[in-house]
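Troubleshooting log. The previous run stalled partway through. Resubmitting the same two chains, unchanged.
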Amino acid sequence: MNSAVLPQRIRTRLRRRHAAEKRFRCYGVVALCFALAFLFVLLATIIINGAGVLIHKRMLFEVVVSEHHGDRYGAMIKDSWKAQFPEVTERRQRRALYGLISRDAEFLLRERLADVPVPDNGIVVLSVPFSSDAGEFLETDPDKRDSFSKRLSTEQRGWLERIEAGGKVETVFNSDFFLNADSREPEVAGILGALIGSMLTMCVTFLFSFPVGVMAAVYLEEFAAKGRLFRFIEVNINNLAAVPSIVFGLLGLAVFIGLFGVPRSTPLVGGLVLGLMTLPTIIIATRAALQAVPSSLRYAALALGATPMQAVLHQGLPSAMPGIFTGAIIGMAQALGETAPLLMIGMVAFVADIPDGFTSASTALPVQVFLWADSPERGFVEKTSAAILVLLAFLAVMNSAAIYLRKKFELKW
Amino acid sequence: MHPIPVTTTATATSEISSEQGEDCVEAGSSVISARNIDVFYGEKPALTNVNVEIPRHQVTAMIGPSGCGKSTFLRCLNRMNDLIENCRVKGNIFLDGEDIYAPEVDVVTLRMRVGMVFQKPNPFPKSVYDNVAYGPRIHGIASSRADLDEIVFNSLDRAGLLDEVRDRMHESATGLSGGQQQRLCIARAIAIAPEVILMDEPCSALDPIASARVEDLIDELRQKYSIVVVTHSMQQAARISQKTAFFHLGELVEEGDTERIFTTPKDSRTQAYITGRIG
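Second attempt completed without errors. Output:
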């Protein structure tokens, strides 16, 4: 189209409008790149920090099981370990030596002896994790090991290098991290306890907030008289969605634990508190989704003699389902990452067991991240990043499930 | 029972056979009579003092300019106005002599007897079959699967849609054309065997060919049902209805035989409207 036919004034303006359009798009691209860059840096940092957790060094350790130790497994470990270093005589040296292998070694030995009978020669070969510092030292490139001078003495480093030269050190996949619960020792601390705790908590949250939220929204949207009380409730549900989460923790502490006597620090109470927090999000999303369903469908059902309940169950809800799922997942994702309310109800406790039910003491992923980030041991640094990755993976799985469900309901026309 | 009011203007059309069985009163007598109907939206009156008789087995057309209250009146007949916030209805509407606004009346039963077709085709986002089967299913009309099949097929047949959808009974109804969707909605309405079918501008969202088919269908359906059609098209009213009621500014200005209304209107406003001077 030739713009030359247009008057000069309009042509100038047209040029300016096109230029403005171009600038506007550029701003958008810049904003997007900015956000993506930060996201990339964030993820890259976490992955680089946390990836180390996937593999770790263990020692093939020959433990001499002797009768005179009875069931003092710690002593067996210490004696067998000491025996490999005949030059160690002083008490101070012995302590330094014992500090190189994980304190969990004695439990591993106990478990092994419970499962497998002792061979005739009395020697059990055990794969034992190193202590956190020793493991890190061995994982470090031999040229760069000088930086450990502050955390390991020259003597300790010598012992480790001797063990390494003896071919007793193996590099294996760190299944401990994925199969253990929390521990005081960073080298054996695992995420499974927190992961299961989070799963159980999310189950309770979903089972509590989804039906209650959807029912409340359906009632408000389809049945409630739209009077002054309705508007009061409406405003307060919106307000509730903006209440700081820690307040819900206080509420849970007072009501669920104080009044109803739900056991503290359990997935049950955690799920209920997070469910309360998620409730307004689900109600708001469900109402919006129901409003978006064309009212002609509802009228069609009612005009055929459907009761209002049938109209909403047969026509309103199925069409609104994708929107409801989207809202539910936003609420659940928020709940999954929530730490503050859980602190109030005791889920911040150190729990070294994997929870086996809704009422056993447990922690949750974000709380685990918080606990590890707070720990002074250096070994917890990479665990923290790895735990964040597990949290993100859990979130991704949960979101995919929601997207799948949404697509499924959309396909049903 | 109230005595069944009989219209003075009714023309008993001889070709109508009494297929409705023993409760079928002579064609042309009133199936619905509205007495002193006032409707308010909040404080604003939408209809004042409407008195009209809906004859049995005939097509009654409601015409008038936009906002004259004809759709409002139609929605009074199956109490769809109940769904509108702030809407108040005063007066009495008798369906076969029973006041439908009486407190003991169950709207579910009422709407079983008075079906409705809307302006915009509104099939459920389900299969063609499920759309028609919806009414019989919620009311438990069919005694068996075969029975339900029969109801669905008959209804589609009577709506003149069966041949077009026979092979796509289980495909989504939203894939049908606009005209087919509207006839599907009619099939859905007749599947629960109502006495009266209300149609709120059923052709206004359709193209002329689809409209013509729906008009033919309406004409056939009056053999079995009493039909009330709201339309803004005077030509359509003239083509399909036996009786016409003209609304203007919330008032029922004039009612009577369609032929008479269009040839010798009594009221000057009716004359102005049908000659295109208002509306």
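Takeaways: Chain B touches chain A through 28 residues (CB under 8 Å). The longest strand of chain B covers residues 30-41.
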